[in-house]
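The protein record passed on for reference:
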Amino acid sequence: MACSETRTVVRTTNDLTIPIWPPTTDSSPAGPFLSSDVDSPPRLLMPLSLNQLKAGEIIQRVHGDANNLLCGIEGLLQCRARPAAATTTTTNITGAGQVVVPKSLLGNPALLTVQRLSRDITGDMSELIALSRREATLAMRDSDQARRMRHHRRVIEGRYRAAARAQHHQHKHPETDGPVQLVCHTCNTRRTPQWRNGPAGPCTLCNVCGLVHAMRMRKLGRTRSKKASASSYTS
């Protein structure tokens, strides 16, 4: 294949729409077609990030530069294949023997073009690798953030479910909630074998405080009865 001239890649905004093929089970290669000249039926287009769009543009640029580089190298090979009877000026001695280098190859301006294309391809590939690492970092950060959000959502949902179960249990068994919250008004204890009546009402004193209160009340009653009897005698 011979290339007579270097082609120039013209890019448009339509080239940034890169189709992403769904997975296939046949033996045909799967993947995006980077050329917009291929006629193919419409397929599913997935949204791409800015880095992915930049990567697609870089790949298209590398594809065009690689084609031009191939044409330039083929042109240099044609120059080397010409008869070098009158143009041979340099002989390089290598381990395999003598290699004849025609003057037309050394003086060909296509060498500079090939060098520039090689340098451009190397720079584009370095930029593509940097974009790939940046995309991986962003994907990892988004994955960590999504994992934290899912964990936070599970914690909130667990709290809501626990509150709903507690409220349902309270409405279903109201009698079990009362005695657990009883507190002695004298010693503030919550555990006693028997709750007794006190000045504040029923079940307001523990067993000991209730017995002490009952003894005081009986003693106070006897004292009042004696005073009442003494006053009746004097009158």
